[in-house]
Request: fold
Amino acid sequence: MGLDKALARIVVEINEAANKFQSSIVITTDNKNIDAKSILGLTYTVLNSKTFKLEIHGPDEEEAKREMTHIFWKHNLPVEAL
Reply:
């Protein structure tokens, strides 16, 4: 499956949101850990995965968890924040 415009927008939205936070934001899916601040890793993840787990650690982790989970659910991407 190629990266259509809708998926590209999702990847950019996730990446831009992640980069607003100081906290480390790691997406775990299919036994892989992807840095949410890495656009290349996100592209692969969104294209090839069905479920996502967020592991967020840092000074603004609660706010990051709220915003990141909101973005995933808004785009019908099942996510669990650990």
User: Anything to note?
Assistant: The mean pLDDT is 91. The beta strands are 24-29, 32-35, 52-57, 79-81. The first strand starts at residue 24 and ends at 29. The two ends are 29 Å apart (CA to CA).
